[in-house]
Amino acid sequence: MTKEERLERHKKIHEILRKHGQEILLSHSFIKSHSFIQHGDMSVYEHSINVAERAIRINRFLHAKCVERDLVRGALLHDYFLYDWHIDGKEKGNIHPKLHGFYHPGTALKNACRDFVLTEREKDIIKKHMWPLTIIPPLCREAWVVTLADKYCSAMETIGLHKAKVRVKQIDISETDN
Ligand SMILES: [Fe+2]
Ligand SMILES: [Fe+2]
C-alpha cells in the first residue's frame, strides 16, 4: 500500500468517526476526559478515539458487518467513567484502583445513559468491553469488536507505540466542521 493510499484510508476512517461520533466528540464531558490518564501518559479521550478507530478497522478487515454507528458510539463511550482512576476513583465508586477493571464498565454505562440516548448494542459494548473480567460475554458482534480493539489499543498504548499517531488524530478531530 502506497503512502497516498494509507492517507486516504486514514481520512475515510476519520470521516466515519466524525459522522457517527460527532455528538459525543463535541460533548463537554467527553472533552473533559482529556484530563484523565488511561495508560502511560495517554488520556482517556485519546484512548477512546484510538479504540473507535481500531474498531472501525477491525470491522472492515473482518467483514464483521457491524452497525457502524453503534460500533463508533459504543467505542467512544466504553471508558466514560469520568474520573482519574489512579487517584480519586474511590470517591466515585471505584473501591480501589486495582479493582478499576471490574467496576468501571458499570460506571461508564451509568454516565453514558445519563448523558446520551443509547441503543441496546451501545449499552452491551460499554458493559462488556472488559470481558472476560465481566464474566458474561458480549451479546453482539459490535461488543466483540470493541473488546478486541480495546485490548489491542491498551497493549499498544502501554508500550508507547500509539503516541505519535494519536497526536495527529487530535488535530483532525478538532478541525471537524461536519
Ligand atoms: Fe475500560
Ligand atoms: Fe478502554
* CATH-defined fold name: Hypothetical protein af1432
Strand content: under 5%
Uncertain stretches: none
Please list the strands of the largest sheet in the order they lie side by side.
1-2
Q: Nearest-angstrom radius of gyration? A: 15 Å
The CATH C-level name is Mainly Alpha
Number of helices: 8
The N- and C-terminal alpha carbons lie at a distance of 28 Å
Shape: globular
Mean pLDDT: 87
Number of strands: 2
**What are the distinct ligands in this entry?**
fe (ii) ion
CATH architecture: Orthogonal Bundle
SSE class? mainly alpha
Overall description:
Helix content is 63%, strand content 3%. The protein is mostly helical and 178 residues long. The chain has a single domain, classed as Hypothetical protein af1432, CATH 1.10.3210. A two-stranded antiparallel ribbon has the order 1-2. Helix 3 runs antiparallel to helix 4 and helix 4 crosses helix 6. The radius of gyration is 15 Å and the shape is globular. It starts with a helix and ends with a helix. The protein binds fe (ii) ion (FE2) (2 copies).
